[in-house]
Amino acid sequence: MAQTYRSYRGRGGRGGAAYGGRAGRERKIRRIELRLTFCLALAAAFSIARLLFPAFFGGIRDDITQKLGMEADFKSAAYVVGEAIRGEIAPGEAFSQACSFIFEGESGGGDVTEVFAEDGGESTAA
Amino acid sequence: MRARRPELAVTPGGALLVAAALFFLDDETLISLVAAAFFHEAGHLFALAVLGVGVARVRLTLTGAEIVLAEEAVSYADEIVCALAGPAFGAAAAFLFSAFGFYTAAGVSAALTVFNLLPVWPLDGGRALLALGRLALGQERGEKVCFFASLAAAVSLAAAGLLLRWGALPIIFGLWLACRTCKNLADDVK
Q1: Three state DSSP letters for A45-79
Q2: What is the domain range of residue B124?
């Protein structure tokens, strides 16, 4: 028994929340609060940067997405799917175009504006 | 008795999700995503309100909004209805957005609906499958079927992402879903 006994001070010293010590719990809460504060500050900083310097922020975003290899054009893919829901494009064609936008990036599915203009409509999304 | 207002909370992961969305998405996609998520969660909350199930907490986590029920257990039929109400509202929203010419919002809403209908446990499709399995096959067999279906779907998603070069997103989601499924099983075993 003596080998497995842990004194009150010992449990406190270990401090992990898994050991049930009050200090551990408090430390865990403090860690979560710290992480929350950091992430909220990050979100606030991005919001302010978007509002105040949209062009500069957009440039940084494009650079980073390019470096990360995230060339998928989800916006155009979503736009094509939206058109298919309304029945302006056949579902099969919309699916294939959406796949091209996602897997081949911005150049993959062609220009949404052109596709839509051929039908006689107007569109701002490209 | 007056129902208690649900507590609203943001986890560090939820704040990180907001930060990532603010960083990576342009204005139109961001607004579309918020609108699609709003309709989706409104579907769940509407179903819960109609069925008289109390909501204790609505939390924004790394994986999106999470609704914590006030009651410990609801019937399997109610669970199926509540789980599928979100995607149903999402699909309706997709048609509504499309009808008004908001094609990006319609597409985002449709994608969110399809993703949530995957038969993987933490998602709505998985929750409905689990309740259906328990109802039809009994608790133990139903859970087993749901676990294997969840794991198969999650691993398939990750493998498809890897083999077909769909990019990092399906691989990350697939692996995360597989981890959640295994963690759920481990919790049950404990």
Answers
A1: HHHHHHHHCHHHHHHHHHHHHHHCCCCCCHHHHHH
A2: 118-190
| Shared-domain flag, residues B188 and B178 | yes
Q: Is the pTM of this model over 0.90?
A: no
Q: What is the pLDDT of residues B83-130, one digit of tens each?
A: 999 999 999 999 999 999 899 999 999 999 998 998 887 789 988 988
Contacting A with CB below 8 Å, chain B residues are: 10-16, 18-19, 22-24, 26, 28-29, 32, 94-95, 97-99, 102-108, 110-111, 164-169
- Domains in chain B, number: 2
Judge whether B177 and B122 are in contact, CB under 8 Å.
yes
For B102, nearest residue in chain A (alpha carbons): A82
Instruction: Tell me, yes or no, whether B20 and B90 share the same domain.
Output: yes
Nearest to B97 among A58, A82, A125 (CB): A82
Query: Cα separation of B100 and B93, whole Å?
Result: 11
Residues B73 and B100 grouped into a single domain: yes
- Nearest Cα of chain B lies from the Cα of A48 at a distance, in angstroms, of 10
Nearest CA in chain A to B21: A43
Q: Which ipTM was obtained for this model?
A: 0.75
Question: Contact B28/A75, CB-based, under 8 Å?
Answer: yes
